[in-house]
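User: Can you recover a sequence for this backbone? Please restate the input before giving your answer.

Assistant: Of course. Working from this structure:
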């Protein structure tokens, strides 16, 4: 059984056992307090470049579904994107024995296919409590036998995240929909797209920096996504401003990063919260 260590930039070390891929990695460490949803979280582009810490104590018990299954709209049904975007997974207790009607493999084997490492046997609640006092920080996972000095801390905000998560070319879903929505993809989740299609919208997904003509659509949707939009999404903000300043007023709406982009487009300021806390719903 191979061991590995999570090392935080403040010098804290958490030793554990490996599952998934046996590879070193680094990223921003964030905590997720949900009881379920590790498949959805790992494939959420918003976690691109982040080391995901799950505080729920038992992970892996319902396995992983087929990540190639599509729904009636041609959208991947059980995952939020076509790959794992998180850099690594940290859990307290991992079980290889899974039981679920929809599962086809274990979490460990799925992580290994995507070359994503995991550590278990870690006191994840201590990590979460430390973040409450000290805030989010960078971390790295170092496999047993590797010199920690050889692995550098890595801030995902210093790379071009939009190029990693955004669609490359425009694509249309539900072409017979009654209303036409253009979605600027800054890290779109499949379920956001699915809901729009279920509401009988024709959805045109475009890259984050794609120019969008207002007269071609009934509304503009801004997806969720990773990183700091002040650094990453200047072209998107220009597009939003053009819609806001147009003589023809059409709906603009967004989720997560999309909200931040709307705020920036109307001249507001945004700031990153101190705590890297993620959960399914927040009030």
């Amino acid at each position: 059984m191979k061991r590995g260590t999570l090392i935080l930039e403040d010098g804290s070390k958490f030793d554990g056992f490996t599952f998934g891929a046996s590879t070193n990695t680094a990223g921003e460490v964030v905590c997720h307090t949900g009881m379920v949803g590790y498949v959805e979280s790992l494939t959420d582009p918003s976690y691109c470049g982040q080391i995901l810490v799950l505080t729920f104590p038992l992970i892996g018990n319902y396995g992983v579904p087929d990540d190639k299954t599509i729904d009636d709209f041609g959208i991947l049904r059980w995952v939020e994107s076509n790959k794992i975007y998180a850099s690594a997974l940290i859990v307290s207790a991992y079980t290889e024995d899974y039981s679920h009607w929809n599962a086809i493999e274990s979490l460990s084997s799925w992580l290994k296919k995507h070359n994503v490492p995991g550590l278990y046997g870690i006191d994840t609640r201590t990590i979460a409590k430390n973040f409450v006092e000290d805030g989010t920080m960078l971390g790295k996972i170092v496999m047993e036998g590797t010199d920690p000095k050889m692995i550098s801390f890595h801030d995902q905000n210093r790379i071009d995240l939009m190029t990693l998560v955004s669609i490359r070319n425009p694509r249309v879903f539900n072409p017979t929909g009654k209303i036409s929505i253009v979605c600027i993809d800054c890290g779109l989740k499949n379920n956001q797209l699915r809901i729009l299609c279920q509401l009988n919208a024709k959805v045109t997904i475009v890259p984050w920096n794609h120019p969008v003509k207002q007269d071609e659509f009934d509304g503009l949707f801004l997806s969720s996504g990773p990183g700091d939009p002040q650094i990453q999404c200047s072209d998107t903000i220009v597009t939003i401003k053009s819609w806001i300043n147009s003589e023809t007023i059409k709906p603009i709406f967004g989720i997560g990063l999309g909200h931040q982009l709307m705020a920036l487009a109307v001249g507001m300021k945004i700031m990153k919260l101190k705590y890297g806390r993620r959960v399914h719903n927040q009030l």
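That completes the design. The mean pLDDT is 93.
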